[in-house]
Write a structure and sequence with these properties.
- There is one protein chain.
- By secondary structure, this protein is mostly helical.
- The protein folds into two domains: 144 residues, Helix Hairpins; 114 residues, Orthogonal Bundle (Serum Albumin, Chain A, Domain 1).
- The protein contains 14 helices and no strands.
- Helix 1 crosses helix 8.
- The longest helix has 50 residues.
- The radius of gyration is 24 Å and the shape is elongated.
């Protein structure tokens, strides 16, 4: 009997060690996604500012960064921006062609435009690579943190792990700490300056928290944090998959809160 208990304990220890290694892959991945988002935004702003010397009206028509960059990458100059070619990118194709003909932008040399196009292509490549890493996060969280993933989704799960430092640390956190992960500055201000405490941290990105009214948001955040604390413990200490069940319980709790 003792040997059996010892074997079970050893098996559990190995599972925990394996999960500890895998959760670090999730953390590195989400940090890479966040860094690539920053790089993408910087490149997009630079392309927009640079190309606006040639076609200043375009950013006012095309608000979506990815759409804007694809247009610059494929249809660089104003004369190239014909309605038929633009249709595949945006429903505002006709307006863009019209504005391109009366634009107040300057004419740029081919070598200048070539550099703008190269930067636009680089920004698109960064976004594509970022999306590939996001797909990887979806796969790894399904394997390592199935309960957290079921409740919070893969990206929010990864951000929570990153803020906590590891799955082990998150599993040992009280729900009240998980609720305000990512709101450390607001919490510090509450403790030092006696301002109201934060109702939530990064879990604000959960759709149910984000769409809740101001009055209910604190209760929804607290309810979600309670479930996340249980999910983290299940993912770290055991192998029970109760994510769907907990998600259903959370939805029932939401009905009572919003009742």
């Amino acid at each position: 009997m003792k040997d059996r208990k010892k074997a079970i304990e050893e098996a559990r220890k190995k599972v925990k060690e394996a999960k500890t290694e895998r959760d670090q892959l999730i953390i590195h991945s989400i940090k890479a996604v966040e860094e690539m988002d920053e790089v993408f935004n910087l490149f997009y702003e630079r392309v927009e500012n640079w190309h606006s010397l040639h076609f200043p009206e375009l950013p006012e028509i095309v608000k979506n960064p990815e759409t804007y960059l694809h247009i610059i990458n494929e249809l660089l100059t104003r004369p190239e921006m014909k309605e038929e070619k633009l249709k595949q990118h945006t429903p505002k194709a006709k307006k863009i062609e019209k504005e391109s003909k009366k634009s107040m932008g300057a004419e740029l040399d081919e070598k200048d435009l070539k550099q703008i196009k190269r930067l636009a292509k680089l920004a698109i490549d960064v976004k594509n690579e970022r999306n590939e890493i996001e797909e990887y996060i979806k796969d790894v969280t399904k394997e390592v943190t199935p309960n957290l993933r079921a409740l919070a989704g893969p990206i929010l799960t990864a951000r929570l792990l990153s803020l906590a430092g590891s799955l082990e640390k998150m599993a040992k956190m009280p729900a009240s700490t998980i609720q305000v992960l990512g709101a450390e500055k607001a919490l510090f201000a509450h403790l030092k300056k006696n301002v109201p405490p934060p109702k939530h941290g990064v879990i604000f990105n959960h759709p149910e928290v984000r769409k809740s009214s101001e009055d209910n948001r604190g209760k929804v955040s607290r309810s979600l944090a309670n479930k996340l604390a249980i999910a983290a413990r299940l993912d770290y200490f055991g192998d029970k998959h109760k994510g769907k069940e907990m998600k259903k319980e959370f939805q029932e709790k939401l009905k009572k809160i919003r009742g």
